[in-house]
Amino acid sequence: MASMDELKKMAGIKAANLIQDGMVVGLGTGSTAAYMVERLGERIKEENLNITAVSTSWSTTLQCRALHIPLKEMGEVSRLDMVIDGADEIDSQRNLIKGRGAAHLLEKIVASMTNNYIIIADSGKKVNVLGEKFAVPLEILPGAIGVVTEKVKVLGGNVVVRMGNPGKDGPVISDSGNLIADAKFGPISDAKTLAHKLDSISGIMGHGLFINMATKVILATPNGLEEF
Ligand code: 5RP
């Protein structure tokens, strides 16, 4: 049976092979996205493709630089031909929880620039109800942590600031200089309404509920790739 990493790689390769010459593409963050970026780098070299990429994190930017994938700054573009990214939870309607890699704010901005937002993941990410396994990642302006914690509590979420190695690293800080926290709600019965409520809290710069954004999911299962 294929390992989890082999499954992720299958999905990453399949998605990278969808990218066509001349495209401007958004590249997500995480271990599955990294396989897709690796394959894209190979294709650019082997097929002499003219691709420009927009990265969603320093991790992906450094990988692109190492692979000589041409990059544009996020602020230089407003439309992308395709965006490919991973996810932490995926429901049957392609709604997502993202942000275990702390990149969900930039990932959501980049995802909002396309009509072709492809999610790649192993089948362990599929859930019946969002929130079943993971908390909802938040990116919070540091000075707003107190008020955001209180307001999210009223919505039923327990906010915990994400920490690096206990006693060694401090809190996890996003690429934009904000605090990363996780809000545990448990299974979320109405993710769309919760997403709107989180959108309306001043101090939350971004949250990991991605509702009605993904246009295709490529899921790697032990029996092969499934798309929905
Ligand atoms: C980063 C993300 C990642 O895409 C998500 O955490 C999935 O990562 P992986 O492919 O490593 O499981 O949302 O912010």
Question: How are the SSEs placed, and which strands pair?
Answer:
Elements: H1 4-16, E1 24-27, H2 31-47, E2 52-55, H3 58-66, E3 71-72, E4 82-85, E5 89-90, E6 96-97, H4 104-111, E7 117-122, E8 136-140, H5 145-154, E9 158-161, E10 179-184, H6 191-199, E11 204-207, E12 209-210, E13 216-221, E14 224-227
Parallel strand pairs: 1-2, 1-4, 2-3, 4-7, 7-13
Antiparallel strand pairs: 5-6, 6-12, 8-10, 8-11, 9-10, 13-14
Helix pairs in contact: 1-2
The structure holds ribulose-5-phosphate.
Distance between the termini: 23 Å
Mean pLDDT: 97
Which shape, going by the Cα principal axes?
A: globular
Give the cofactors and ligands: ribulose-5-phosphate
Number of domains: 2
From N to C, what is the helix and strand string? HEHEHEEEEHEEHEEHEEEE
Under the CATH scheme, which architecture of the largest domain would be assigned?
3-Layer(aba) Sandwich
Give the strand line-up of the largest sheet: 3-2-1-4-7-13-14
Q: Strand fraction band?
A: 15-25%
Helix content: 25-40%
Main sheet record: 7 strands, mixed
Question: Given the structure, what is the number of helices?
Answer: 6
Instruction: State the secondary-structure class.
Output: alpha/beta
